[in-house]
Amino acid sequence: MSDDPMVPDATVRVLAEAAPDADQTGQFPWTGIRAVHESGLLESTVATRYGGQGAGLSDAAHILAALGRGDPSVALISAMTIFTHLGQAAKNHWPDDLYQRLLGEAKQRPLLLNAARVEPELGSPARGGLPATLARRTANGWSITGRKRFVTGAYGLTHFLVWAHTDEVPARVGTFVVPNGLPGIQVIENWKSLGMRASGSHDVEYTEVEIPAENALDLVDPSVAQQDNRAHAAMTLALTAIYLGAAEAAQAAFIRFAHERVPANLGHPIARTERFVALSGEIDLLVSGARQIIFGALESNHGDAERLIRARLLAGRQIRDAVQIAVRGIGNPGLNADVGLERHFRDIQSVLVHAPQEDTSISILGRSAFDRWRRAEAVQLETSTTAPVLKTA
Predict the structure, then answer these.
(1) Is 144 within the bounds of a domain?
(2) Quick one: 219 and 237 in the same domain?
(3) Does the N-terminal peptide bond of residue 170 adopt cis geometry, omega within 30 degrees of 0?
(4) Same-domain check for residues 251 and 360
């Protein structure tokens, strides 16, 4: 039985069978996305008040782990929509008519939503700063102009959620729902990554793209618009489940190879040798340990951001190390596309590049550790100055 029972095994198989070709061509992975859509997984986190299943973040992570075993690029594209519905379930920040209309569309075709936030000059908002992308008021709504980077699934998205500042005085910052296919939208094909090739995380240029007035979300003063990396810690950890799935697929490929490879001078599968038994144990320790770390932290989440950040870093590093051990253990065949490990190895390198990146996360933990020490010192000092002095005879 699967560790992620919300996802049919048949869906994972469709993704896995289509993944090598999608990886080679870099084309949008429609076969996998349609399979996810037909399984109803894209809307799994829609709130029950809208007639959805109301799946939570831990459920979403289980879904993403299963999809990651099939094709992590498809899982990443799917995650953006799954997380968007999760955000609406919690914050209820979309205009009701607009959101209901999108849910109606989802019954007919894959509804794919993704935030377009990173910019060429700004970089990742996780490091601070405000967008250069401009939302200009028009007679009928807004006109969007700017360029975004790393827009995962760019070609297949039905809507971009574009982070921009307004031309108002004073200016506000918010998210603008921009339907794909409108005049003025250009996808710039510059996604040439080592792995996650089918995610199609290209740049997108918006030039005077007209949208209705109601397509604006969360317009706030720029002073409160900075990305809160602590607040997003649980969701970022859930995203790591995609790469857990890829590592589990790599583990399966390693085990299959160990049982099918029978050297003539050995006369039996290399899986029976002590070396490969030990390698298998090392890989299992890291991969299964990462699963325990991810879901243990998510399922006992008490709002402790540092614990979630720590779990993400530990799990991510273990996942990365496990696949490297598998490739190194098999040797030259492990670098051949036929075994399957080579693609998993490339994809897994992205595990800790999502915002906030590894160095930012480490800095959060470092500052937190210093803060804890300072608080403890302050308490100790206060205790020592207020404690009664015992007189001696």
Answers:
(1) yes
(2) no
(3) yes
(4) yes
Q: Are residues 55 and 151 in the same domain?
A: no
CATH number, residue 213: 2.40.110.10
CATH number of domain containing 351: 1.20.140.10
Q: What residues make up the domain containing 38?
A: 9-110
Residues 215 and 285 in one domain: no
pLDDT in tens, 198-235: 999 999 999 999 999 999 999 999 887 676 788 889 99
Ranking 203-207, 311-315, 375-379 by mean pLDDT, the lowest is: 375-379
What's the chain's average pLDDT? 94
Say if residue 393's pLDDT is above 60.
no
Listed as own residue / partner, the contacts of 216-220 with beta carbons closer than 8 Å and 24 or more positions apart are: 216/135, 216/142, 216/174, 216/175, 216/176, 216/177, 217/93, 217/94, 217/161, 217/174, 217/175, 217/176, 217/177, 218/93, 218/174, 218/175, 219/166, 219/172, 219/173, 219/174, 220/172, 220/173, 220/174
Report if residue 391 sits inside a domain. Answer: no
The predicted model scores a pTM of 0.94
Q: How far is Cα of residue 297 from the mean position of the Cα atoms in its chain?
A: 16
Assigned domain for 382 exists: no
Sign for the CA dihedral angle at 265, 271, 272, 274 comes to: positive
pLDDT reading at 1 higher than 60: no
- C-alpha–C-alpha distance, residues 94 and 100, integer Å: 9
